[in-house]
């Protein structure tokens, strides 16, 4: 057993097998009575094997499931071990992942960076990729979650689709990258503000940031349409990130956030892991003694197959639940400088030239309204406490409307 657990990181959950909870048992029995498709896996299960599911969600759909089975099942397949079950629960708006071994289920997983993408009466498109470490799950062209193997993936022999869906089509083939992009999930070009802002105009820039914060904090603005997440922005060669240019991101942290992330990367794929010049991620999971706005900040880069220059620290920021923000990442001569609401938060030394970056990837617990490239030597902090500093501190003390959209 110890050897088994060392090879498969999720195998430790084998010791936590349990009987299904009442809701899961209800959906399991309901779906089992509506077996829509049984598919025998002909290809040898190995990393790169991709399953694509397409079908129609019934107008009265409560639940449907995709089961990856360890052997070709009988008509009921009650005795089959399940490497992975993806269960879509439409009334609760979440997707579960779990495994069954010897008739008992392990701990259920249901969290994701991606908002719920499935709707009654509409078609759905899922891609599940097999890798050495895990299953990768994509919904409607966006990466949804990964599921660490709890059993050897080589046991895979069949797939069942059950529940309130119809017109199911299953395709399998080997791929070299993931996910497959649909038209609506392709990266969108990032707008570029060509006006150059000189150092002496930095005060105007600061007032512009403060104006944006005030605008985004108003109740009326909360109803403005936001950019879909995860967000993939395309950077073209003529507006590449070079010294003096900056990326400006305007948005609002959700009321009950866990984390969000911003990545400057080369390539839009999730697998294999693309080269990342700069990765920034605030985590808001905190103890009761931490101040609101204090977050665990991770920054790092991914080069030559490994994460490098990784720093994790707890910093006081003006990022807080329900609060608007303007994040500006400036390209200096040898490092990125990141500002949150006009305050310089940290420097991150280049591990790769920023002009090689062609994708900005933003995901997590935020509302996103604007992402633009600015051509300037933006925001050089003056020494001492300025009138702008006092204005921003006054803004921080104002009450932000506590409304979640």
Question: Given the structure, what is the number of helices?
Answer: 4
Q: What does the main sheet amount to?
A: 7 strands, mixed
Structural class: mainly beta
Q: How do the helices and strands follow one another from N- to C-terminus?
A: HHEEEEEEEEEEEEEHEEEEEEEEEEEH
CATH topology of the largest domain: Jelly Rolls
Q: How many domains, in number, for the residues?
A: 2
Give average pLDDT, whole number: 83
- Shape annotation: globular
Per CATH, the architecture of the largest domain is: Sandwich
Low-pLDDT windows of residues: 196-201, 377-384, 398-405
- Any idea what the radius of gyration is? 24 Å
Relative strand content: 35-45%
CATH class of the largest domain: Mainly Beta
Strand order, sheet with most strands: 12-14-23-16-17-18-19
Helix content: 10-25%
Describe this protein's structure:
The chain has helices spanning 2-7, 22-32, 202-216, 387-397, and strands at residues 35-40, 49-57, 63-69, 82-89, 94-101, 104-105, 123-130, 134-139, 142-148, 158-163, 165-174, 188-189, 192-193, 231-234, 245-253, 260-266, 275-283, 294-303, 306-316, 324-331, 335-340, 343-349, 359-364, 366-375. The protein is mostly beta strands and 405 residues long. The chain has two domains: 2-181, Sandwich (Jelly Rolls); 187-397, Jelly Rolls, CATH 2.60.120.200. The protein has a seven-stranded mixed sheet, with no helix packed on it. The longest helix is centred in the middle third of the chain and has 15 residues, at 202-216.
């Amino acid at each position: 057993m110890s050897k088994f657990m060392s090879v498969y990181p999720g195998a430790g959950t084998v010791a936590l097998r349990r009987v299904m909870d009442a809701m899961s048992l209800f959906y399991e029995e309901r779906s089992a009575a509506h077996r829509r498709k049984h598919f025998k896996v002909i290809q040898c299960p190995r990393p790169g094997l991709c399953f694509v599911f397409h079908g129609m969600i019934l107008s009265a759909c409560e639940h449907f499931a995709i089961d990856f089975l360890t052997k070709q099942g009988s008509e009921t397949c009650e005795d089959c071990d399940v490497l992975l079950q993806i269960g879509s629960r439409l009334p609760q708006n979440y997707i579960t992942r779990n495994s069954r071994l010897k008739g008992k289920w392990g701990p259920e997983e249901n969290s994701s960076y991606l908002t719920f993408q499935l709707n009654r009466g509409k078609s759905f498109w899922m891609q599940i990729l097999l890798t050495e470490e895990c299953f990768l799950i994509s919904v409607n062209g966006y990466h949804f979650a990964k599921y660490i193997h709890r059993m050897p993936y080589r046991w895979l022999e069949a797939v069942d689709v059950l529940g309130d869906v119809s017109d199911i089509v299953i395709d399998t083939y080997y791929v070299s990258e993931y996910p497959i992009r649909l038209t609506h999930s392709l990266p969108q070009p990032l707008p570029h503000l060509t006006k150059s802002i000189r150092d002496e105009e930095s005060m105007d820039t600061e007032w512009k940031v403060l104006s944006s914060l005030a605008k985004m904090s108003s109740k009326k603005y909360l109803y403005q349409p936001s950019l879909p997440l995860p967000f993939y922005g395309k950077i073209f060669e003529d507006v590449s990130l070079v010294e003096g240019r900056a990326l400006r991101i305007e948005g609002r942290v959700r009321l009950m956030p866990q984390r969000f992330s911003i990545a400057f990367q080369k390539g839009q794929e999730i697998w294999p892991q693309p080269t990342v010049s700069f990765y920034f991620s605030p985590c808001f999971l905190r103890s009761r003694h931490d101040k609101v706005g204090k977050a665990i900040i991770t920054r790092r880069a991914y080069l030559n197959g490994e994460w490098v220059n990784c720093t994790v620290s707890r910093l006081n920021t003006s990022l807080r639940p329900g609060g608007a923000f303007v994040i500006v990442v400036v390209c200096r001569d040898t490092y990125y400088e990141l500002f949150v609401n006009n305050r310089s938060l940290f420097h991150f030394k280049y591990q790769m030239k920023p002009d090689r970056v062609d994708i900005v990837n933003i995901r997590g617990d935020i509302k996103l309204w604007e992402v633009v490239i600015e051509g300037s030597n933006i925001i050089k902090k003056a020494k001492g406490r300025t009138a702008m500093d006092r204005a921003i501190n006054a803004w921080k003390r104002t009450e932000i409307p506590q409304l979640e959209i």
